[in-house]
Structure to design on (533 residues):
């Protein structure tokens, strides 16, 4: 039976403030459990802010016969879209077809075709792509999103930025999501339901003492140490999940993690329409080119093995060149490194299934419970941002074995803060916000709705001019919004704000970001703005 937290004693202690940790914290708190979560850096500071920003089923996973994963992800697309229409929205994906499309390496599908259709010589035929898209349209019970169509690239805007050799494309549906804001809103929801969310707090040790865990933490800013007790421990450490098993928990569990680095580049906007491109290369890999933050284009991702989570992932020059060359196979106007305004890279902590390549490694999640004769430990491996809510439900199924009176599932259809409107109403909200706050230009109003939804009114309150919002930090970031982020969304430093809670770092100067960091440090020191303890 879950119990209320007493001092520093909890039902559940979660290590890791990425999407899996925060998703589990939200679900568990909503079922009445007392929950604490410790994140050694910022929320979504690693993998969960470095994705390709998509709620998608994973079209290419069909070639690996991962039908359960794809079906679950496709079903979740629309569930999540309705729960968070401010930070996610539908997007159409254009897949140009050409006869040189090939498989990457030895996928299960390519092996079958090699046996039964050897004359294809590793190529992806058009009928196979159309079959995959048909399955993609129907596996997940699609209701909100339109299905696949065929596009004449010589006649529409979709073909304008592409090389003239591309005359035909398939267009299908998936969804965009602001990954880091998704994490912050899950953490906020968990906190509002009673969870204790601690950022900048590293778990230095965790050991079993009979039927509970003894957990020691260190505040990485002050050096202060704290002691916690919990009936169950959840290791959602992302890239550090293996390190936590071996060093913090000192478990004998033999499950391995495979770290795969995915890198992205961001350029100035390369085309005028709002659709995404799905490009397939002659090496069999795929990349996306996606409209990003209104004035930019996001291109990615790579798949490279990454040996050590302590080594910060960066988009190497070789990866930049690879993505540029890949995109240049499709776009009329070649891009170069001079067009890149930002790069980022993240490490996916995949379950080590022995796959021959980083690309072939499963993206499905794996949950392992370890008791070793004492208090239970749940280790979380892998997962996609699209299936985070289902992962949390699966985690709660395993947690429920040790808390038999827990209530059942509840998160499906429950909106995150600011998301209490329909997907189709977003343009009307933008227009209404701009109408009621006449000092907002279109970019600013749209950014506020896309970030905060109906909470935008709570941030702007009774302001009648920009000056009413306090200090102006540049790029439409004001003191009113910043205080909201510090008191409601656990932001502590400038990087938390301009690269995770927003992407305003793309529009701010280095000097503006330094001034923001200085302001936040002083505000925090004065006790004026602190989201967590």
């Amino acid at each position: 039976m879950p119990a209320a937290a007493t001092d520093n004693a909890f039902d559940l202690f979660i290590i890791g403030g990425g999407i899996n940790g925060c998703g589990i914290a939200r679900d568990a708190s909503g079922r009445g459990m007392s929950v604490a979560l410790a994140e050694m850096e910022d929320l979504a500071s690693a993998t969960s802010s470095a994705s390709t920003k998509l709620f998608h089923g994973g079209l290419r996973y069909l070639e690996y016969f991962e039908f359960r994963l794809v079906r679950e992800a496709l079903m979740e697309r629309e569930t999540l879209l309705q729960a968070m229409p401010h930070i996610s929205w539908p997007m159409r994906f254009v897949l140009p077809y050409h006869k040189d499309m090939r498989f990457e390496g030895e996928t299960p599908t390519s092996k079958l075709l090699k046996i039964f259709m050897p004359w294809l010589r590793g190529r992806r035929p058009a009928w196979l792509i159309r079959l995959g898209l048909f399955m993609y349209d129907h596996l997940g019970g699609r209701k909100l999103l339109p299905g696949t169509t065929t596009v004449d690239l010589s006649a529409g805007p979709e073909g304008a930025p592409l090389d003239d050799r591309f005359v035909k494309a398939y267009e299908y549906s998936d969804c965009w999501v602001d990954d880091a804001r998704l994490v912050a809103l899950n953490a906020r929801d968990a906190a509002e339901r009673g969870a204790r969310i601690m950022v900048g707090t590293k778990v230095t040790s965790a050991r079993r003492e009979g039927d509970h865990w003894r957990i020691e933490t260190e505040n990485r800013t002050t050096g202060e140490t704290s002691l916690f007790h919990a009936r169950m421990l959840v290791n959602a450490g992302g890239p550090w999940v293996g390190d936590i098993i071996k060093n913090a928990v000192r478990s004998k569990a033999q499950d391995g993690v495979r770290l795969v680095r995915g890198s992205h580049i961001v350029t100035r906007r390369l085309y005028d329409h709002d659709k995404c491109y799905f490009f397939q290369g002659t090496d069999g890999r795929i990349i996306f080119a996606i409209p990003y933050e209104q004035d930019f284009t996001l291109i990615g991702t790579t798949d490279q093995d990454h040996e050590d989570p302590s080594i910060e992932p960066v988009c190497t020059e070789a990866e930049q060149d690879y993505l540029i060359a890949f995109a240049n196979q499709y776009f009329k106007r070649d891009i170069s490194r001079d067009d890149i305004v930002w790069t980022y890279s993240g490490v996916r902590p995949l379950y080590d299934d022995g796959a021959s390549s980083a690309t072939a490694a499963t993206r499905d999640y794996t949950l392992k419970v370890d008791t070793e004769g004492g208090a239970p430990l749940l280790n979380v491996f892998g997962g996609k941002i699209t299936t985070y809510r289902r992962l949390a439900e699966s985690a709660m199924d395993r947690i429920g074995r040790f808390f038999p009176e827990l209530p059942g599932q509840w998160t499906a259809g429950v909106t995150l803060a600011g998301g209490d409107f329909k997907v189709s109403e977003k343009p009307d909200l933008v227009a209404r916000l701009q109408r009621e706050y006449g000092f907002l230009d279109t970019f600013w109003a749209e950014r506020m709705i896309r970030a905060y939804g109906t909470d935008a009114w709570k941030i702007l309150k009774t302001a009648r001019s920009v000056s009413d919002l306090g200090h102006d930090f540049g790029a439409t970031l004001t003191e009113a919004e910043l205080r909201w982020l510090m008191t409601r969304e656990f932001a502590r430093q400038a990087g938390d704000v301009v690269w995770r809670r927003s992407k305003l770092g793309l529009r701010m100067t280095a000097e503006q970001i330094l001034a923001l960091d200085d302001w936040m440090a002083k505000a925090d020191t004065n006790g004026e703005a602190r989201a967590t303890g």
